[in-house]
Amino acid sequence: MSNCITWVGIDDSAKKLDVAFVFNQEENPREQFEVMNDPDGLGRFVKKLKAQRGEVRCVYEAGVCGYTLQRLLKKKGIPCDVVAPSLTPRRPGDRVKTNKRDARKLAKLYRAGELTSILVPNEQQEALRDFLRAREDSLEDLTRQRHRLSKFLLRNGMKYRTGKAWTKGHWGWLRTCHFDDPLKQEVLMQCRTTVEETQERLKTFDEKIEEIVKRPEYARLASYLMALRGVKALTALTIIAEAVDLKRYVSAPAMMSAIGIVPSEYSTGDSQRQGGITKTGNGHWRRVLIESAWHYRHSPVTSGALKQRRKNLPEEVVAIAEKADRRLHKKYVKIVNRGKRATVAAVAVARELAGFVWAIGQLA
After folding, report:
1. Residue 36: which CATH number?
2. Which of residues 212, 232, 247 is at a domain's end?
3. pLDDT digits over 28-64, tens only?
4. Are 293 and 350 in contact (CB under 8 A)?
């Protein structure tokens, strides 16, 4: 029976896998069992999959366990898809959730074609993504640590009043701060040291990013993306790492939707209501696009640094970037002049900026 298909739904966790085998169009699983998520358990699981008659297709939801299982099954010649958990259909009235039920539901939905598969990055792509997210974590750590230090000083009547915080002058003032109480002085020293160490760690990340962006596998696309205003090495590499492959999106709107930067909508009958952006999909990618979009609030004057980034690039890439300069600045000004908040304008500009990113990605 060469046309037989066994649909395998897997609910994975760090300790074990809950598995359901659904054969062809049968309503109930033929088998449901647990497998320990360790080398021995996975080895037995692979043998059991290979012992099934006909074709075997596996599926599980993306989660904290990553892509280790998918890569193992792929290496053994067993098809396995990883799907987006946020897009898995759920019944509003279903109030019972167990691992076994989830595995059975995944197998049936996979058979029905109701699941949305994600593109699994290779190990090199995942390493770049992890590196950039670690840098993002360090930046968040630095923000928290700076807040702790400044609020500690403020509670004790110390505030820097002669300029902006975290400038050279501010650091000079911080080093003159002193408490007579030894415990408070120890807190000050520890907080100050922690901020300095995190700043150094962030600096190390940034130096490494400048090296990575020049590697042959990233240099061409990164240089194209850096023709856009507000897109430098960090943003370009983040887009490359999170997108994996810009050409996999069939259109710019499809990419905008995947980033979660399109308006939400609830329409029924003659009623139509749009809300804020959906915020589904890749939040890291969405964040860097919105950060870049703020640069378009300024008049489209090409700076010396931007001219240097656009030097020696193909004419079609530069033409797309120059079109973005004019169009996105005009859009930002138009939205603000209508009385909308600047933050709303920046998000709207970021949505169109995603379209220009997609267009450049098709040329690389």
Report:
1. 3.30.420.40
2. 212
3. 999 999 999 999 999 999 999 999 989 999 999 999 9
4. yes
- Is residue 118 a part of any domain in this protein? no
Strand-pairing partners, residue 163, are none
**Dist CA 255 CA 123 (whole Å):** 23
Q: Which amino acid is at 91?
A: R
Give dist(CA 9, CA 20) in Å, integer.
5
Three-state DSSP at 19 gives strand
Per the CB < 8 A criterion, the answer to whether 237 and 132 are in contact is: yes
Q: How far apart are CA 207 and CA 196, in angstroms?
A: 17
What is the model's pLDDT at position 157? 94
Q: Does residue 106 surpass a pLDDT of 60? A: yes
In whole numbers, what is the pLDDT of the chain averaged over residues?
A: 94
Locate 178 and state its tokens.
Answer: 């002193």
The pTM is what?
0.90
Query: Do 159 and 240 fall within a single domain?
Result: no
Cα dihedral across residues 121, 124, 126, 129: positive or negative:
negative
250 contact partners, CB below 8 Å, separation of at least 6: none
What are the φ and ψ backbone dihedral angles of 83, each rounded to 5 degrees? -115, 160
**10 within 8 A of 60, measured Cβ to Cβ:** yes
**Cα–Cα distance for residue pair 165/274, rounded to 1 Å:** 40
Q: Are the beta carbons of 21 and 31 closer than 8 angstroms?
A: yes
Retrieve residue 116's tokens: 């949305």
**Mean per-residue pLDDT for 215-240?**
97
